[in-house]
Amino acid sequence: MHPQQIVNLLRTLGRGRGWKDSTIGTYAKNDSALVARLDGGGTCTLATASKIIQWASDHWPDGERWPVDIPRPIPAREEAE
Alpha carbon of 60 to those of 37, 39, 42, 43: distances in Å? Predict the structure, then answer.
């Protein structure tokens, strides 16, 4: 997975929630610079990417399409049902 895919995922989530990049990073990983760093060519570990993607799935806004290039994990709230 390429970091830009994660950036696109997070920005799509942010548009649906009305959140800025820094807010998304803070909520997703307690790192307000996360989206900017990844967008600027930074990387993250596979474990971090997996946690971010799970977080995004858990907080995905209704009405937004999940990006087709990233498999969506089952949201935690659905697993609990």
Answer: 22, 20, 24, 23
- C-alpha 48 chain-centroid distance: 11
- Single-letter amino acid, residue 60: W
- Which token pair is 73? 């994990």
pTM reported for the whole predicted model: 0.89
The whole domain housing 35 covers 3-79
Per-residue pLDDT band at 79 (split at 50, 70, 90):
low
The 10s digit of each residue's pLDDT in 29-42 is: 999 999 999 999 99
Q: Which residues of 37-49 are buried (b: 16+ CB within 10 A; e: fewer)?
A: bbbeeeebeeeeb
Number of domains in the chain: 1
DSSP per-residue letters across 23-44:
HHHHHHHS-TTHHHHHHTT---
